[in-house]
Design a protein that fits this description.
single chain; 312 residues; alpha/beta; Spore Coat Polysaccharide Biosynthesis Protein SpsA, Chain A; nine-stranded mixed β-sheet
Length: 312
């Protein structure tokens, strides 16, 4: 990274998050690296979330409330709009933030060290699972799920089993410029950014829990839900239809990404995945074809989820 300090932006998507939002924003304000701008967009909350955002905007001029116009976009599209806003504002590096977590004070400082300017970079870290009162539950989210972010950094790994958690992620401007806008058919902005980074830049993993990942019943995506999805086969069976709907949306989104990146970067993995996953053959045959082409899950339970997604 050059001697000029980068423009560091943080994007925070909110929806009915008044219970934990103040704690999260205060953890950002307590960062050892203090030269940042926080962009917040509320997704038409019905609780006190908008009031909390306005209070902090008045208190701290680094915090900017983006008017959502009373429009509900949903989790992924809310982040897409926020990321585009940060990009348009001139941000060099953007950190993603959820409304209900807690950032370790050195999070920004340590992650910025991995953005050295040598290559376009997406950086992500481990997380500590905590309960509603921030009491420790599991020291490592990555170990809890058995993920392998040190080695699973290619599109052929991430397409089958994502190991990147949005609220632990920071991403360079170039990668964002290629990733945005996120297609409406894509349900997971974490996976989307990771796949773009795997083809257009470099993914770096900091093996340290920089986020206290709060587990509670209101999580849109969280350790509790992911643990169930990966570790309970009965849950996978019950939610097969939901996973298949998401899968079909992703296939459509990846088609858009191929069109966007083809000619600039190697999109071969995306093309192979889209072709094989769309074959009108039994799920096990699709999985065999993907394995033959070098696609790999990181965990056995992740393989079960992939199998269900591939079912006709």
């Amino acid at each position: 990274m050059s001697n000029t300090k980068p423009f560091v932006a943080i994007v925070l998507a909110t929806y009915n998050g008044d219970q934990y939002l103040e704690c999260q924003i205060e953890s950002i304000r307590a960062q050892t690296y203090a030269d940042w701008k926080l962009f917040v967009r509320d997704d038409n909350s019905t609780d006190a979330t908008p009031d909390i955002i306005e209070k902090f905007e008045r208190k701290d001029d680094r915090i900017v409330n983006i008017d959502g116009g009373g429009i509900r976009l949903g989790y992924c599209q809310n982040f897409s709009v926020l990321l585009q806003h940060a990009l348009d504002a001139g941000a060099d590096i953007v950190f993603l933030c959820d409304q209900d977590d807690f950032w370790v004070p050195t999070k920004l400082e340590k992650q910025l060290l991995l953005h050295d300017g040598k290559n376009p970079t997406l950086c992500h870290t481990d997380l500590e699972l905590v309960d509603q009162q921030l009491r420790p539950v599991k020291p490592s989210y990555i170990q809890h799920l058995g993920l392998k972010p040190h080695i699973a950094k290619t599109a052929k790994s991430l397409l089958l089993e994502n190991n990147i958690t949005g609220c632990a992620t920071s991403v360079d401007r170039l990668i964002l410029s290629l990733a945005l806008p996120i297609p409406e058919s894509m349900d997971n902005h974490d996976m989307w950014l990771g796949i773009v980074a795997s083809m257009a830049g470099e993914i770096r993993y900091l093996d340290e829990a920089m986020v206290k990942y709060r587990q509670h019943s209101q999580n849109v995506i969280g350790g509790n839900n992911l643990a169930q999805a990966r570790w309970r086969l009965d849950v996978l069976r019950e939610t097969k239809q939901k996973h298949q709907v998401k899968f079909r949306g992703r296939i459509h989104a990846f088609g858009e990404l191929i069109t966007r990146l083809e000619g600039q970067f190697d999109v071969g993995a995306l093309q192979v995945y889209q072709r094989l996953a769309s074959l009108d053959v039994p799920s096990m045959v699709k999985l065999w074809f993907l394995r033959r082409e070098g696609f790999r899950n990181q965990t056995f339970k992740g393989s079960l989820l992939t199998f269900l997604q591939l079912l006709r």
